Structure formats: structure tokens, C-alpha cells
Amino acid sequence: MPPNSPLRSEQLNTPTPYRYCGPMEREKITLTGAPETMLATLYGRALDSRSPRSLLHDDEALKAVQRIDYDFRRARMSSMSAAQVVLRAKQLDDWTEQFITRNPGATVLHLACGLDTRVHRLAPPPTVRWIDVDFPEVIELRNRLLPDPGGDYRTIGTSVTEEGWVEQLPVDRPTVAVFEGLAMYLREEDGRRLIRRITEHFPGGEMLFDVFGAFGIRMQLLIPVVRNAHAKLYWGVDDPQEIESLHEGVKCLEALRIHELKAIDRLSASNRCWARVVGRTPRMRNAWRMLRFRF
Predict the structure, then answer these.
(1) Listed residue (202, 192, 208) closest to 253, CA to CA
(2) How many beta carbons lie within 10 A of that of residue 117, not counting itself?
(3) The pLDDT of residue 22
(4) d(CA 279, CA 292)
(5) Residue 49: DSSP 8-state
(6) Which of 3, 15, 63, 295 is the most exposed place for a label (fewest CB within 10 A)?
(7) Per-residue pLDDT band at 15 (split at 50, 70, 90)
(8) Comparing 6-20, 41-55, 165-179, 261-275, which segment has the lowest mean pLDDT?
(9) What pTM did the predictor assign?
């Protein structure tokens, strides 16, 4: 980063050096609430990597699970739950990769990155600036569990709802903001404020994220990952125009229900059937969607 960048290097670079665990080291993890759910999604991607029908081939997720001292039975990750995790990750991977292909000098802003290995899966060219953002303790955990992806990779240890950090990011490139499994954990006012800050700060780009509708929020106690972590979901979005109204120039490019995701055809027959039934059931079809916006 040039010395006159609006964000100082000590704010943007990894707050602690990588201390990558060796194959015999196990990392003891004790998390509760929303942060604990990142272990369930990591486990879902690891399960997929072992499947002959793998969508993500996320070998780093599998290696990370093998280095974690945690009872993954707590995740209650059924075949259908894992399928939803993988479908979501695959769609966001594809959209992010398409943006990078169109903008090889882009900034990727990955919010609430958790232990997601998207930067490893996509292996962006060195011309891409990739910024992972999450709580400081999560960033430190990433540094112990995941290898340094190399290239122009940086991290920020902060809550995404904290004031000030977005406004200090450089605005010299097209920017894609990716947030997976985040919006529903935010209170509505915090989610709307975050989107306004992104679209007001950066001159242009895309936002890629998933949302629950109001029905999905009401049914949250039926979601094992949420229930077992004692987490709570708050923000439901039923109409993409709610997001468009937050800032002039925001336009919804795609709003996909689960049965409309391209990768569904690569699931097992039982999971394809489940996804299509959910996607075509009136009360359930908008309970969860993948959104892509231009701003």
C-alpha cells in the first residue's frame, strides 16, 4: 500500500503474524453465539471436500477441521444443511470470480470472513487486493489455522458494525463486497447502515450476500446451527428493493432462490429434491435468497 493511503498499514495488515499450526497441533476453540456458527459452515465445506461430488474442493477447510479440537457433532450438520452451505459458498465464489475476471485490479472486501477459505479457493491474481474482515479474535484464529494465501492479502480485526474502518479503506479500485451468512445476524438498522457506508464510500462495484426473509427469521429455532450455538437472527429482507432504496444507484442484478442456483444439479438426488421442494413451497421459497447488487 502506498504511504499516502488513507488507511495506515498497521490498521489494514494482519494484526498478528501467521503462526500456522503444524499437522500435529490441535487448536482448542470455545466459541458461543454467532461466532460459533462459523465452525458449522467450515465443517460443511470440509464434508463437501471429501465427497466424490464435491462442489468446492475446499481442501483447506478439511485441513483446518482436522487441526481443531472441537466436537463438530454440536453443529448438527445434516446432508441437507451441508448442501445449503456449499450451494451458498459456490454461488458467491462464482460471482466473486466473475467480478475479478471483469476487474483484474479489483478490491475484494470479504466481510465477516470467519474461517472461510474463499481467498484460497479462488486464488486471485496478485493484481487483486483482498481484505478479510472479522472480529480481532477471529482474525487471530485464522492466522493460526489457515496458511497465508500470499499476494496482496490483508486483514482487519474489527466488528463490521464498528464506525470508521470502512471510511479509511482506499477507493482507487472497483470493489466487490462479499458477506456470507452475515446479514441475518445484524439488527436491521446496523445492516442498513453497513450497506450505506459501503455504497457511499466506494465509487462503484458490487455487493454479494445472502438474506433470510421474514419467514426465515421467524423459523430460526428450527435451524440446528443457530439453535445449538444460542445465536439469534434479526434482519429479514423480503424484497430486494429494500436494499435498492438505501442508496441512489444501487441495482439488484440477481435474486436467486435455492432451487434457482446453478450448482443444484450437482447435488445428490435426495438433496436436489429437497432444494426444489423448498424453492417451490410458497411460504418457504423466499425464506433464504442469494442477492447480487451493482452500485
Answers:
(1) 208
(2) 27
(3) 52
(4) 18
(5) H
(6) 3
(7) very low
(8) 6-20
(9) 0.88
**Residue 160 dihedral angles phi and psi, to the nearest 5°:** -65, -20
Write down the pLDDT at residue 5.
31
Do residues 16 and 142 lie in contact, with contact meaning Cβ atoms separated by under 8 Å?
A: no
Please state, as a whole number, how many other Cβ atoms lie within 10 Å of the Cβ of residue 5: 14
The x, y and z cell numbers of residue 269, run together, are 438426488
Cell, residue 157: 480485526
Q: Residue 20 gets which letter from DSSP?
A: P
Alpha-carbon 5 to chain mean position:
26
Residues 6+ away with beta carbon under 8 Å from 283:
215
Can you tell me the distance from the alpha carbon of 199 to that of 201, in angstroms, rounded to the nearest whole number? 6
d(C-alpha 207, C-alpha 294), whole Å: 7
Q: Which residues have C-beta within 8 Å of that of residue 263, sequence separation ≥ 6?
A: 55, 86, 87, 90, 91
Is residue 118 a contact partner of residue 93, using CB atoms and an 8 Å limit? yes
Helical segments of the chain, H only:
9-12, 37-49, 59-66, 79-102, 118-122, 136-145, 188-201, 214-218, 224-228, 241-244, 269-280
Quick check: 186 and 216 in contact, CB under 8 A? no
For 32, 50, 119, 234, the CA distances from 143, given in Å and listed in that order, are: 20, 24, 13, 30
DSSP characters over 226-277: HHHTT-----B-S-THHHHTTSTT-EEEEEEEGGG-GGGGGS-HHHHHHHHH
**Residue 262, CA distances (Å) to 70, 78, 135, 257, 272 in order:** 33, 21, 32, 11, 11
Rounded Cα distance between 117 and 99, Å, is 18
